[in-house]
Automatic annotation (TrEMBL):
Swiss-Prot/TrEMBL keywords: Calcium, Ion transport, Repeat, Signal, Transport
Highest taxon listed in the record's lineage: Eukaryota
Descriptive protein name: Calx-beta domain-containing protein
Organism: Geodia barretti
Residue ranges of the TM segments: none
Gene3D superfamilies: 2.60.40.2030
GO cellular component, one term: membrane
Residue ranges occupied by any Calx-beta domain in the UniProt entry: 16-122, 135-254, 375-484
Keyword Lipid metabolism: no
GO biological process, one term: metal ion transport
C-alpha cells in the first residue's frame, strides 16, 4: 500500500519498499528556451543495486502558476525501467511570448501508474519551473594570450542583466576552432575539457590549460595560434542558447629560427670542378642552446643565379632536407656545372625556406647568401693591346696570338673554343682551339704594297670569341704598315748555334738580334714554375731548375714597337750520370791544312775520343785538339 506526503511517495510493489522524489522542486530556464529537464530519483533501502525490478510508469501534468496557457507546455509519458535509480523527463516549452516585467512560472504535478491497477494509488507531487530574463554573457576581452612555457591562459567573462537570486552557474567550454590562419591552428595544443565558471558576482575567470607541442613555429608572420571559447550553462540548469567566441593565442616563446650559416658555407668554389658547394644552415634558439628544436621538420635550400651567372650553371634549384630534434646544423651539397661561357668570376645565391605540404613551417631567414664561382681557367688572350708594326719592304708579317693559363699548365683550357682574327674588312681568319691545346697561334700574312701612298698605313685588328652563344670582343688593336723605301731590315731574333745549353740543373742561352732593340725579355716556364729575366745583353742563365719540361720564350721589341719572338723547349732531368759535350765558338777553325776543335765536357766522363771521318779515333782532352 502507499504512504503519501507532499514530496515523498512510499509504496510497495512485489515486496519492494520504494521512495520516489523530485531531484529538485525548482527549475530555472531563460526565456525563449525550448525545453527544461526534470529528474526523479528512486531509492530502495532493501536493494540499492536494483531498487525496482519492474517497470514503473509516470506522467507529468502541467497546472497552475502565472505563466501562459497550459497547452504551451507538454510532457510525454515516462517510465522507470528495471534497476534504474534515476529517470529524467523533458517538458517542452512551446510559448515564445516575451516574459512579463518580472518572472513567470508554471507548476507541474507527477502521477504514478502501475500495471497492476489494483495496487495503484494516485499521488501528486508539485514542482515549479521559473522562466526568467536571459542575462547577456560578455568576454572581458576579444582576445587572450598565454605563453607556451606557462602552459595556461586566463579567460574572463561577465554577465549583464543578471539576477543573483537564482544562483546561476555558467560553464566555459574551450572548443578548438580554426581562426584567420588555418595553418597555425593545432588542436593538440588546447585542453578541450569543460571548465565551470560560477558567477558569484557579475564577473568570473578561469584558467585554460595549454599543451603546445611546438609543431607550429610562427609561420608566415602570425604571432598567435588560435582557438575559440564557447560559454554555455549546464544542461540541467540554465542554457544560454548562444555561443560567445574570442580569439585565444599561444605566444611562441621558443624563438626558433633557421638561417644560412656563413661560417660553414663555402664562399667560393672553382669552375670546372662539378661541385659540390657546401651550404649549411643553423638552428638558433637562445632559450635552449643545448636542444634548440624539440621536433622534426623540413626546410629547403634554394639556389638562384646572381651576377654574371649563366642559368645553365645551376642544376640544383631546390634541395629539401630534414631537421631532426636537437639538431644545431644541417648541410647539403649543391652541385653546380659551369658551362665556361662567361670567362669571369660568377656568383650564385642561396637561401633557406619552408617546405609547405611536408610539415608545418618554422621561422626562416630568407636572406640570400652569395657564393662565387671562381673562373678556374684564367685564360689570358694577348698581346694587349694587339698592335703590330711591319715594314712594307718586308712583304710579310707574322701575327701571333698568345693565350696563357695560370692554373693548369698541362691542359690550359678544359673546353674547345674558336677565335676570329679580323684585319680591316679584307681579311678574316678563324683560330680553332681544341681541349688541352697549346694556346699559341701565329699567322703569316703577305703585305702587298702598291706604293701609291708614301706614308705609314694603318689597319684595324679585332680578335673576337666566336662561340655559339656569344660573340665577345676580347682584344682589338692596329696593324701598321711602315713606309720604308730605305728598306730597313726587319727585326729578327734567333738563338746562337746550340743554344740553349742544358748543364745539370741550369740552362744557358745566347741570343742574336738583327737590329737594335729597346727591350729583350726571356720568359721561362715549366710545370708550376714561371720566371722572366732581362736578357738585353744577349746572354741569359737560369739556375736551380727542378726536373721538368720547360719552354723558353724570347721577346724582342724595338723603338718602333716592332716585336719578334722565338721559343724552344728543353728538359731538365734528375739523371746525375749524364755526360754532355759542347763545341766552343762553333767548334772547328781551319788554318791551312790544320783544323782545331774547341769543346767542353761535363759529367763523369772517363775519357774523350776524337776522329775525322774514317780515320782511327784517338784520345783527346778539352779544351782543344
Amino acid at each position: 500500500m502507499f504512504r503519501v506526503s507532499t514530496d515523498v511517495l512510499t509504496f510497495a510493489i512485489r515486496d519492494d519498499l520504494l521512495q520516489i522524489r523530485l531531484e529538485s522542486r525548482e527549475h530555472y530556464v531563460f526565456e525563449s528556451t525550448s525545453a527544461v529537464n526534470i529528474c526523479l530519483v528512486i531509492e530502495n533501502g532493501a536493494d540499492e543495486d536494483c531498487p525496482i525490478n519492474a517497470s514503473l510508469y509516470y506522467r507529468v501534468h502541467i497546472s497552475g502558476g502565472n505563466a501562459s496557457a497550459v497547452e504551451d507546455y507538454q510532457a510525454p509519458l515516462n517510465v522507470f525501467t528495471p534497476c534504474k535509480e534515476r529517470s529524467c523527463f523533458q517538458i517542452d516549452i512551446l510559448d515564445s511570448s516575451p516574459v512579463p516585467e518580472d518572472v513567470e512560472y508554471f507548476e507541474f504535478s507527477l502521477s504514478l501508474l502501475n500495471d497492476a491497477s489494483q495496487y495503484a494509488e494516485l499521488v501528486d507531487t508539485v514542482g515549479r519551473v521559473f522562466i526568467i530574463p536571459k542575462p547577456t554573457v560578455n568576454l572581458i576581452a576579444t582576445s587572450f594570450s598565454g605563453s607556451e612555457a606557462n602552459e595556461k591562459v586566463t579567460v574572463c567573462a561577465s554577465l549583464s542583466n543578471y539576477d543573483t537570486r537564482y544562483n546561476i552557474s555558467v560553464l566555459i567550454n574551450v572548443v578548438p576552432t580554426l581562426w584567420e590562419n588555418p595553418q597555425t591552428a593545432d588542436y593538440d595544443d588546447f585542453s578541450n575539457e569543460t571548465l565551470e565558471m560560477r558567477f558569484n558576482s557579475n564577473e568570473a575567470c578561469v584558467d585554460v590549460k595549454l599543451f603546445d607541442d611546438d609543431v607550429v613555429e610562427l609561420r608566415y608572420g602570425y604571432f598567435r595560434e588560435s582557438f575559440r571559447v564557447t560559454l554555455e550553462s549546464p544542461d540541467n540548469n540554465v542554457r544560454l542558447g548562444e555561443v560567445v567566441s574570442a580569439r585565444v593565442g599561444i605566444i611562441d616563446d621558443d624563438y626558433i629560427w633557421v638561417e644560412v650559416d656563413r661560417d660553414l658555407t663555402n664562399s667560393t668554389v672553382r669552375e670546372g670542378i662539378s661541385g659540390p658547394a657546401r651550404v649549411c644552415a643553423s638552428v638558433v634558439n637562445p632559450l635552449d642552446p643545448v636542444c634548440p628544436i624539440q621536433f622534426d621538420t623540413y626546410i629547403s635550400f634554394v639556389s638562384r643565379s646572381g651576377s654574371a651567372a649563366s642559368p645553365g650553371d645551376f642544376r640544383a634549384i631546390s634541395i629539401i632536407t630534414a631537421i631532426k630534434q636537437c639538431d644545431h646544423t644541417v648541410c647539403v651539397d649543391m652541385v653546380y656545372h659551369d658551362d665556361n661561357i662567361v670567362e669571369t668570376d660568377e656568383v650564385f645565391q642561396v637561401y633557406v625556406t619552408n617546405t609547405p605540404g611536408l610539415h608545418p613551417g618554422i621561422r626562416v631567414d630568407r636572406t640570400r647568401y652569395g657564393i662565387t664561382i671562381v673562373d678556374n681557367d684564367v685564360v689570358t688572350i694577348g698581346p694587349d693591346p694587339l698592335n703590330i708594326n711591319v715594314n712594307e719592304s718586308v712583304g710579310v708579317v707574322e701575327v701571333c696570338i698568345v693565350a696563357e693559363d695560370g692554373f693548369d699548365e698541362d691542359c690550359p683550357v678544359g673546353f674547345p673554343f674558336n677565335l676570329t682574327l679580323q684585319i680591316s674588312e679584307d681579311y678574316t681568319e678563324n683560330l680553332v682551339f681544341e681541349e688541352c691545346d697549346e694556346l699559341d697561334r701565329c699567322l703569316v700574312l703577305s703585305i702587298i704594297d702598291d706604293d701609291r701612298v708614301e706614308e705609314d698605313e694603318q689597319l684595324g685588328i679585332i680578335l673576337k670569341n666566336t662561340r655559339e652563344r656569344e660573340n665577345v670582343l676580347l682584344r682589338n688593336g692596329t696593324l701598321t704598315v711602315i713606309d720604308d723605301d730605305a728598306a730597313v731590315p726587319p727585326l729578327e731574333v734567333a738563338f746562337i748555334e746550340d743554344s740553349p745549353l742544358v748543364q745539370g740543373d741550369s740552362v744557358e742561352a745566347h741570343i742574336l738580334l738583327s737590329r737594335p732593340v729597346q727591350s729583350l725579355v726571356c720568359r721561362l716556364k715549366g710545370g708550376s714554375f714561371r720566371t722572366e729575366k732581362n736578357c738585353s745583353s744577349g746572354h741569359v742563365v737560369f739556375s736551380g731548375l727542378s726536373p721538368a719540361l720547360y719552354t723558353l720564350r724570347v721577346v724582342a721589341t724595338n723603338d718602333r714597337n716592332d716585336k719578334a719572338f722565338i721559343k724552344t723547349r728543353f728538359e731538365i732531368t734528375d739523371d746525375t750520370e749524364r755526360c754532355t759535350l759542347h763545341l766552343i765558338n762553333g767548334g772547328v777553325s781551319v788554318s791551312g791544312n790544320s783544323a782545331t776543335v774547341e769543346f767542353t765536357g761535363r759529367g763523369p766522363a772517363h775519357g774523350y775520343l776524337c776522329y775525322l771521318d774514317k780515320m782511327e779515333p784517338y784520345q783527346c782532352m778539352p779544351p782543344s785538339v
